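User: My collaborator sent over this chain with a note saying "see what the structure looks like." That's all I know about it. Can you take a look?
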Amino acid sequence: MREERGWRQEDMLTHGISLRHWQRIEAGKSITVTTLLRIADAFGVPPSDLILDLYRKRK
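Assistant: Without extra context I'll predict from the sequence alone. Here is the result:
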C-alpha cells in the first residue's frame, strides 16, 4: 500500500511510525495491535483489510 501511494518509508513518520520500525514491519517482523491500528489509520482502511491481505499473501 505504501508503494502504491508513492510514499517513502520516511513518510510513515507523519503517521507515528519511525523509519526503523517501518523497515522491521516490511521485513515481516511481528507488530502490536496498536501498530496495526496506526497503519490502518494511515492508509484509511479497516484493520481487517490489512489482516486479510497478510493472510492471502501467506497462502
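A starting point for your reply to your collaborator: The mean pLDDT is 92.
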